[in-house]
Structures are given as C-alpha cells and as structure tokens.
Amino acid sequence: MQIQSHNPSHSPIFRAQPGAAPEASGDTTTWTFEYDTRGLQGRYTDLRLKGSFHPETGLYDPEWNGGQSIPMEDDDKDGVYTARVTLKGAPGQEFQWGAEGKDGKWAVLQERPIKISLGEEPVSRYTPVSNHLYGVHRDEDGVRFQTWAPALGKEQLADYKLNVDLYNDQGELEKSIPMTKDARTGDWTLTLPGQWKELEGKSFLYSARDSEGNVLKTRGGKEVIYADPYSRHQMGQQRGLEKIFVDPVLGFETGWYDDSGKGGPNYADNPTYGRFVVDNHGDAQKVQLVLRDAQDRQLTKAELLERLGEPKFPTYEEASAADKRDVDVLKAWSLSNSPKLTSYLWTNKVNDDGSIEMTRVDTDRIGSGWTTVVNNFPNLEGLKYEFQVFKDGKMVGDQDGDGKLSAAERLKTPFNDAYDNTISARPGSARRSLIKESAYVPRYNDTPRKETDYKKKVIFELHIGSFLAPKDNALAPTAEDLVNNLDYLEQLGATDIYMMPTAEFGGKRDWGYTTDYFFAGADAYGFEMKRDQAVAEGLLAADARTDQESVWIGGTEAIQWLNDQMHKRGFSTMGDVVYNHTSGKTDGDNPLWSIDGDANSFFANGGETPWGRKPVYAEQGVKDFFSNNAVQQVTEMGYDNLRFDFTQVLHNTGDAGQQIAGMEALRQINRTLQAVKPGTVTVAEDFSRNWLVAAELDKSENQWGIEKKGMGFQAVWNDGAREGIYKGVEGTESMDHLMDAMIGHYGVSGWDRAVMYAHSHDEVGNSGKWVARAAAHSKDVMGSYSRAASRAGAALTLTGPGVPMMWQGEEFLANNDFKHGLTSTWGYDTDWLNFKVTPDRLAVFKRGDRAALKPGEEKYFERYQAMNDEQKAQAEICSFRAGQFKVYSDLIGLRRSSEAFSATAPIHRVHTNNQDRVIAYSRGEGNEQFVVATNLAECDRGGYGLNLPPGQWKEVFNTNAQEYGGTGAGNFGVSVTGNQGVMLPAGSTIVFKKVG
Q1: Whole-prediction pTM
Q2: Could you give the angle at the alpha carbon of 138 between the alpha carbons of 130 and 411, nearest 5°?
C-alpha cells in the first residue's frame, strides 16, 4: 500500500514553456538555491540541484542539462542545502529548478518545479514542509512568528503591513510590531530575539495596519485583526460555558443553522440559552454558579429574575407559525420526544442570594459532573460568571479561607475560565492565540500496534464528544473519558480507532466539520486532571503550577496525550481532516476568512459547497496550508493515519481549472505525507467512483476532457457496499444487487483500496440509516427479525472484502439519531454495560437455575431475581445489546483468525436467489476457504440447497446463536457437501469452513 514517490522520470527533464528560450546575450547574476529539509524528519539528505539552465554557461536549457545535477551542500549542518549558479539572461527571463535525493528521486513535493525570474532577489528557497515554521515557535531564546497573507503590501494594499499585536494579561494591546514580507511566497515573519521567557504564555493577534498604525477595514467595516491560523494553542472557548439554541416549544437543544429551505427546521431563530458545566468533581457536596455585574457584585435571585425572566415553553397552540412548522418537522422525524433541558433549568435550584446550585449528573461511562441551563442568553452578556465547588465544607481554591475566590484564586481553579470570565456574545469562539509550545513528548510511538498489515485492520469510527454518553448528553465526553473507555474497544477487538475531527471548532459540541483552527486541538475535548497525575503523564513540568491541586489540559495536549495513550494500548489511530470547506458556524471564529481583508486570498474564486466556501486550491499558499496541516496531524498531534472528508469537492466540482487545482492539492498532500512519514494510510470519503482517487501518483487518464491524475489515497469509502447491505436488509433491492456490491469494488482498482461499512456518522446522522431500522421499517429495532438482520449486516461487513469499519453504537443496537445540532440525540442507553448478560445466560436466570450459573454470574442472577416485571423487560433489552456486542466481537475474532478474510482474499459468487432473499459467497482459496451464506428472509429456510463448492463444509459461525439473541437454529457442526440442504435461519448469516 505504499504510494510511489513523485518522480517525473528518474532523471527529470522538464520542457520549457513556449517562447521561453532567451537570447545568448544578457546580464549575469549568481543565484543561491536553497532546499530546507528541516520539516522532513531527516528523510532527505545529500541533495543535488537540477534546473532549466546549463550550470557552466548559465544559459537557459530546455533539456535541463540532459538531466544532470550538481551537488548541494549543507554548510552549517542545519538541514538547509545550498548551491550557487551564475545565470545569464535578460531581465524577466524565467528558469525552473528542483532537487533530487541521493536515491535519485525527485524531491519537489509540489506539483511543478520552482520558478525564478531574473531581476528578482537572487535567492530562491524551497521548503517542502514548513509546519515547523508557520505559527509561533521558540527560536532558541527568542520568539518567531510566520503566517501567510499574499495580498497585503502590494497593489491596493501596498500601504499595509501585517503586524503582531501583543496583549497583556488584562487583554489590553501592549504593542503592535510590523512583520517582514517575502514577496515571492506571500509569507510574513517576525523574530524577537531573547524574548521567549518574557513572552511565553502571552496572547497575540495579527492585524493589517498602515504606517500610522491604522487598522485596515473591510468594505463591511470590520477591522482586519485575527488570531493565528496556524496556532497550536488558543485562549480557548470560555471555560464551562456554551451558547445553545433551544426549541421554544419542545424544550430541548437544537442546532444553530437554518435548514428550512431544504425541508428541515430553522434552528437559528430559536431562543438562545447558556449552558454551564463543571466536569468531574463527583466527590463535591455541591457546585454553584454565581453571576456578577460589571462591578463584581453578585446578583440576587430577584435581580436575576428581573433580568432573565422565568424560562417558559409555550404550548404548540400558543407558538408562532414558524415554531409550529419546526415542531411539525421534528415530529415527522420522530425527534419530538428528545430529552428536554427542563430538569437542568437554573430556576430549579436558585438561592435568594442568587447563587445557583448546579444539578449533579452521574453517568455509567464518563463519570460525574454538574450542569445548569440559563435562559435569555443575550441578557447574560457582560455578566461575570464563576463556578464554586464545595468539598468537605470548604470552597475549592479558597486558599486564604475567607469563603470566596479572589481573582487570583479563581484563575488557579481549572474549572473556571483562565483568561476572562465576562460572558461574551460568542463564548464558543477561541479568542486570542497564545505564545506557547506543546510540552508533551509522546512516549509510546514505538509500541507494537495490534495490526500493522492494512489489509487485516478493523476500524472503529467514533465521535469523542458523544462516545458512550448518556441519553440526554448532559455531560459531553472528553479525551480523558475516551482513554478511560479503551477497555471497551479492546474487548470489542477493533485494531484502529478513527475519530471524527479533533481540530478546534466553534462551540462546545459539534461533529467537528466546522473547523476554525486546523492546527489546534479542540478545546471541547480538554479536561481537568490532578496535577500530580499530569506531571506523571508528562503533560506538565515537575516545577510548574506547584500551588494547584488540579490543572486544565488544553485541546492540543489532550489530543496528543489521547493518541499516545491509544498507542500504549496497541491501537492505531486515524484522524479526520476537513479540507473541502471551512467553518461557517455562528459561534465560531475562523481566521482564514480574515486573511487580506476584502482580497480574501484563501477563498477568492474558490467556489461554494453546501457547507461553506471552498478554498482556492490554485493558490500555492493554500495547498501548502493543507499539506502542512496533514503533516502536523501525523507528527505533532500523533495520528498514524488520516481520513479526508468528502474529497470529491476538490477534484470533481467547479470548472476544469478548479478541478485540476483541487486534484493537485490532494496529490501534494499525499506526496508530502509519504515523504515525511512513509506508510501513512490516507482514506478518502469520495463517492465519485473515480479510480484515480486511490491510484498511485504516476497514473493518469483523460476524463471528460480533463487530464486527471492519481491522487495517492490508499483507500476510499465504499458507499456502494453500504447501500447494498442497507437496501438488501430493507428488501428494496435484489440479492443480485447486494452480491454485485459485495464482489464489485467500484471506483477503486482492488479491494485493498476500499473501506467496507454498513454505518457511518453520515448515514446515521443525516438519514437515520441504521441497518436494524431498515429491517424493522421503523425505529422499533428490538424485534427478533430486526435484531437478526442487524447481526447479518455485521457479518456481511466483517466477513466481506475490503477493510471493515464500524460506527459507534452499531455493536450494541444503539439506534440513536445522532442528528447534527441536536445534541440530545447523540447519547444512548448504556445500561446494558451494568448488566452485561447475553440472552442465553438470561434464559438461565429466567429458569432460576442457580446450578447452571458460571463463575461471576451470581451477582447478576440475584439482581435479576429481585427485579419487577418492568425491570426484567429492560434486562432483556440489555441482554440483546450484550448479545449484539458479543456477535461483533466474535466476528472480528473470526476475521482476524484467517487470511481468508483479509481485505484482498479472493471472493466469489456461490449463490443468489432474489425471491428467497439468499446470498452466498466464498472467501479465501485452497483449504483455507469459507462460504458465507445469508438469508435475509423473515422465515427459516431448512434443507436449502446452496450448491457449495467441492469439498466438505462445516458450520463454524452462526449469527443466530442463542448467545447473540437468536433462536439457535443452525447446522450444529454437521459436515455438508455440494447441494446438500442446509439450515439458513431467518435474517441470519452462517459461515461454513472447508474441512475436507
């Protein structure tokens, strides 16, 4: 699965553009060519220069000196290779150049050679990977800033420079320092020697200013001042506070957008509330929220009621026409019974002095926390908020014992905001950037992974912000919660954990595809940790914050630590990157929109997508931004592999020029990743069925008049297989269609290039397409056939070709809607984890057969005997979920037990019958061969003839086993041959192994 290096030819000769050859006369200039290898992890050495010039005469040479090269030297041994050539030609004469490594491979990672023009400054530096330069970094004892803004400083903006604005601890601008521009690249840099110690931890923004210090304004009057797009560390969203939209009739949280034009609701006109959360502190007696005015005086209950009013929800009859329409849509979507926020309203527990006692929330899998919801968010703006945690009768953090928190004491409590506790109109915005570098050094990169052969991997997709969350999602899980639940994933048997986007997004709760800061980890996934543990984990220096009991672990370190902890357990990790659009969220703050003001260099002429503006990939600076980010994800953030969101937007939308530019951006990203970290697996979510998406970079084909090239992905999501499984279970497509999906790897050259799945966040969240629902034709998925068909869908995914992927919850019949924006639909019933009893064992409990108990079952047996009828009915549902988990775990074990189930092992049609709804295929070859037979009918088919391949076949797996929740009907280990009849239970899959 290695991507071939970019190598136009072993000795590349690039032809000149028409009319480029100069006259023999002209000025001579000695040019310095520099290749900066420092971002390449030491993989490129002993470089040699090539160019469209003769190195002795200095004249333009369209044959590139016959492909010959000259040595480059790393004189200072700092990773920058240099060569000097005297060039001759008229002013404006263009040359091209590049370099090759000691292995003779072309070492320019962008699509084309580097251009220079005589008359410019005679120095050309190429830095193929520059994520170590962009952003703010420590430069020995100094501070170095670098960012991209190509339009500033030229033409209409010639009077403006980019400045670094430095702020003090009170949030006041201290100084604004002009940066220096590289006119060739559009990069702006500033180095402040010897100032790291003084500036570390301070905040900064970038601003476009003229020589008088006046800030550039857009046509809309907005000042061009913005946070660092390359920042790894932000001040973060306001700690423990989020602005949410609430349905005014139904009383649950909704999204922030208007989807009414597409038949959905308009959430954006819903009233806004503030949700306040303190995570952890399950040992506290109480946790209070206090609101103060600008003079720091605590508001009383009467004053709060006067300001906010009583939170009330009108009836449907009292609602406006627009609100009624939203309710009608939500009812049609069967979402009107989503958990409400009313039990967390501030008025439920408010004292006369105005202190609000927050509601304690205890969960099975993500610990405890405290929350309250306050209505009328606009009237909260400008107030100061403070959390007070009481343990052993004392206020946590009250070091002087005066019964309150001073400003200094408050700042040392990790559950309070570390910068500004004045409630902002946009508390979900990440605010200013920080002069800081990550202290975390990964410890477990070299730990052996559970699986290194890509063809044998089993991928589990999850969303950190909802994984194993309770039904109402009152507490949002963090990176720490995921680490605490790795046992669960290990018991399941997954080898690779794919996480939905973890870069900084607007708001506390989101899928993550509304990215604001691509290089910073999402602060929403940060968490509080005991200081001593943070030191032991390498997250905090031993001499740092010695006066604090607990510390806050911000988003970037949280994700770095999370990846490292997964590596410690042997999991490979896959990050999710979003390069087809950027955030348009109302509570976000995407700095890319501010680059160059109205010139809008990052998006100008890029085009539109349904989710936001498309970047202008034709700009080399935009290509570099994304290739640098991809490298940063696998080097700094610690991901092993990457999944790319909806890549067809780049290469398959817009005019020919836009498609080519997007394709070249993807090629550069994949080329760069393989140069920096060979073996990185990249997976494209792409439904264009263009085989070149997952083709090597040297492949090409003329498609609809456009020369398309291989884009270098290792794999593509196989939506055809997902659709085939779903519709096959639903009964709306024939078994021939399902078989075609199982054996036909459309859009890729082979099954090693496809990710096979029955569920993903998109199908579940956007369309509610759980396989169990397809079988039930409703949301009632606990019927015997629905459960059986769901198990069969799992078997098709996990015994079929390609690399299998699961979506969180399918392994226990989760069935939640996971609607984007409706966070109350993100959680699910996890009660079964406290009663993990499979259906076959529950049957023993029902009989009261104490003698048949297995070790460790006594406590569950006693619990069951003490249950009332309603509780016993719930226990049965728990057993169905436990059985589902068991079938997934066993199927994964079966897959990993034999090469016959590898992604590329042969698959052949054995049998299909559209009327009977039966399908069978073989996997493997020789004696290591299996036949997978599935009956999707709602009735058993006994004595069924499959016309098995020659040999003796024995049942080795049955999704209808009683321990999984089935009836137990099957073939009971009997060997069969040829067309000898077999039992195919309703909605089930039988796996036969060749035994002779």
Answers
A1: 0.96
A2: 120
